Amino acid sequence: MAEEKKLTVLQLLPALESGGVERGTLEVAQALVEHGHRALVISAGGRLVAPLVASGAEHFAWPIGEKKIKTLLLVGKLRKFLREQKVEIIHARSRVPAWIAWLAWRGMNPATRPYFVTTVHGMYGVNRYSRIMTQGERVIAVSDTVRDYILREYPDTPPWRIQVIHRGVDGQAYPRGWKPDPVWQQAFFAQFPHAVGKQLVTLPGRITRLKGHEDFIELIARLKRRGLPVHGLIVGGASSSKQRYLQKLRYRVRSMGQEADISFTGQRDDLKNILAISNLVLSLSTHPESFGRTTLEALRLGVPTAGYDHGGVGEILRTVYPAGLLPLGNLGAATQRISTLLQQPSPVPDEDFYPLRSMLSQTLDLYEQLARAPRRQGNQ
Questions:
Q1: Are the C-beta atoms of 284 and 216 separated by less than 8 Å?
Q2: What is the pLDDT of residues 81-133, one digit of tens each?
Q3: Whole-prediction pTM value?
Q4: Quick one: 182-343 is in which CATH superfamily?
């Protein structure tokens, strides 16, 4: 890569608060800087801006993810920005920013404009609004599941444009067998005393109907009836629009007499620690996930992990830990499989699966291949 010319790459996304898209943006920006490139990010800001800037990347605070008509006013501003900053690769990671980027890019000279890249991070509703994510000159799919979704739902997308680049996890950040220090553990169990001495079954993910919290509550009840000494941890925050659903979940736990068996931790910045002390981590999303980064993080720590056999989570488990595959829509069979994993856990393979460095090298290679390619108008 040292022989390649230095690039200016702009990534766009709504905000930099938390989540897999946000962390991936930060990781790619850091890798660009480490290889001598210039990394720019446009978002509304958030708590990940500080580490982004500390890595040597540049952040520009624009409300580019707002679903408002006035956001279209950013099209001309962005076109001017692309020219002034001499951006060579523009990489859109979300739908509203992608529309703004595409409209700005389309109005530029095809012989000199940047190359336009999109990443399909999720399996969005199929409509004209979402179609923009398939309009990049290169379209990154974060899993084979997502590639299949694109080809199935947007069959006019040329297959050669799509490149599968699986998300990755840094093995040094998630070393096998790692445990948080005793001080943290003492504080955690002081906050959640019902979890002390129990087998911890953890469901990470924001509070939303799609994440399978109701199935989780029922599974914990069934495991308790089998006499297993389990405690369920629901780890994730609820946005203002999901507060009513959170209250519904809390009411269900109370009405089933499970207040001593399930703890709601809320949003946490120490998810890695919670995963590491868990006996089993679950993914119960009723809608297929595009990848399943938390599933991968738990497995990299060596923690047994189980999830419904569909989407990106099913893809990861089939590759890494097939013992954790759960049949979708069959709580009885899922309970039996989870019970077995708790009583006779199958060891997680000690391998370097889905490494972060592979994701980063493939992404930078894609940028560099585009930058070397002769410019053409294409069919945008």
A1: yes
A2: 999 999 999 999 999 999 999 999 999 999 999 999 999 998 988 999 999 99
A3: 0.89
A4: Glycogen Phosphorylase B; (3.40.50.2000)
